């Protein structure tokens, strides 16, 4: 049995994305059966090649909302899932906006690409479906895209939570209470405010409000202003009492019973 989280990103937001001073390829969760790519922003396939992840080894795409730092490489991921559109295969799960489009938010995967998937399904917060050997439940967000979702994924080694882009609001506490690993998109340091996003102090409040705190917090989707992610991780850790690791291109977390293994494949950005 195997559960791994592999990062192809550390950055997010417009400046990190435009300059690629931080990678924006999203992250992956691999279990025995599920091979899911989450939020493949610009460079996802390039970053996969850099850290030697086999793109064919993908069967699920998750896109949390309609901002380009979360979706631009999505159709290429669908092409990988479907072996270059030659086989009907795999699953695409995302916000209503990402899957079907709504108002000014157009769907991010074309009908042509969706036609080769076995399932293309929007999830609303609170909705849950089974995918391969896992269960995924959509969580709430408060962000620009009104239909944005995060998730709570149930694996054989416990639950993995992903906040996606959201500001802090009480629903998050209930949505992520008791997850084993929490991946949170933390854009700014300490209490530096940024509309629609979390800063470090928000993450501290979120974790300290839970009745059961996660074992590990991974900071993801950091903005260019987040100058020293390691120092920021220490700050969050000191104020919550849990392990905190900043995401990095090439970071792999392997979950085992009661512990996790940290591995880093150092790659030049
Ligand atoms: Zn966003």
Automatic annotation (TrEMBL):
Taxonomic superkingdom:
Archaea
Query: Residue ranges of the Metallo-beta-lactamase domain?
Result: 37-222
User: What Gene3D superfamilies has UniProt attached to this entry?
Assistant: Ribonuclease Z/Hydroxyacylglutathione hydrolase-like (3.60.15.10)
InterPro entries linked to this entry = Metallo-B-lactamas, RibonucZ/Hydroxyglut_hydro
Q: Which organism is it from?
A: Methanocaldococcus villosus KIN24-T80
Q: What protein is this chain from?
A: Metallo-beta-lactamase domain-containing protein
């Amino acid at each position: 049995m195997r559960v791994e989280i592999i990062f192809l990103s550390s950055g997010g937001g417009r400046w990190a994305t435009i300059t690629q001073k931080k990678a924006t390829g999203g992250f992956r969760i691999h279990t025995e059966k599920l091979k899911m790519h989450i939020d493949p922003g610009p460079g996802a396939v390039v970053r996969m090649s850099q850290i030697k992840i086999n793109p064919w080894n993908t069967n699920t795409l998750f896109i949390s909302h309609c901002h380009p730092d979360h979706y631009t490489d999505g159709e290429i991921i669908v092409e990988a899932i479907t072996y270059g559109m030659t086989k009907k295969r795999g699953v695409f799960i995302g916000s209503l906006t990402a899957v079907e489009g709504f108002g000014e938010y157009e769907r991010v995967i074309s009908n042509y690409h969706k036609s080769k998937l076995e399932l293309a399904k929007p999830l609303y917060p609170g909705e849950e479906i089974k995918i391969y050997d896992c269960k995924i439940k959509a969580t709430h967000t408060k962000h620009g895209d009104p239909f944005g979702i995060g998730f709570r994924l149930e694996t054989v080694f416990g639950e993995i939570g992903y906040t996606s882009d959201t500001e802090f609001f009480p629903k998050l506490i209930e949505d992520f209470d008791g997850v084993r690993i929490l991946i949170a998109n933390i854009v700014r340091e300490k209490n530096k405010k940024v509309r629609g996003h979390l800063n470090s102090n928000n993450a501290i409040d979120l974790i300290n409000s839970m009745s059961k705190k996660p074992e590990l917090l991974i900071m993801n989707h950091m903005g260019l202003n987040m100058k020293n992610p390691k120092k920021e991780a220490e700050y969050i850790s000191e104020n919550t009492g849990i392990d905190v690791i900043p995401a990095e291109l090439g970071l792999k977390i392997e979950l085992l019973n009661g512990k996790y293994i940290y591995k880093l494949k150092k790659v030049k950005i």
